[in-house]
Amino acid sequence: MNSIHLFHGEHMFEIGIKSHFCGAHKLNGYRGQCASLHGHNWEVEIFLRANKTGRTGMVADFKDLKAGLNDCLQRLDHSDLNALPAFKRKNPTAENIARHIFNELYPRLKCGGCRLNSVRVSESPGTFAIYSRR
After folding, report:
1. Domains and CATH numbers, the chain
2. Are 71 and 134 in contact (CB under 8 A)?
3. Residue 41, CA distances (Å) to 28, 97, 131 in order
4. Closest CA to 132 of 16, 52, 25
5. CA 128 to the chain's CA centroid
6. Model-level pTM?
7. How high is the mean pLDDT of the chain?
8. Parallel, antiparallel, or unpaired for β 13-25 and 79-80?
9. What is the pLDDT of residue 113?
């Protein structure tokens, strides 16, 4: 019976969208094939959380989220990620790309009571990195 009260008021909505970009990178300081320039078809998913929906019954409009994410990914698409200012001092790993996208989107995706919760980046099927704030 007490467990019911533990979760009272802690329900959340979580919504997400998925997009992709193509980009090349190499991993400096890495021993192996990934030390050479190579490309990936990166998949990116973003997830937003909210305690409630707006008057329309939505946390946020998927159309607006897609526009914001695609604007961010456009700067990464068809580029040598190592040459971008964001990755001059750190390798463009899936982890660092997820953090970069999160930091780019976090201030832009403010809608009512929702907030960007996490970004998931995959460089190949079956692998991914997630960056989130607690």
Report:
1. 12-132 (3.30.479.10)
2. no
3. 20, 13, 19
4. 16
5. 11
6. 0.89
7. 91
8. parallel
9. 79
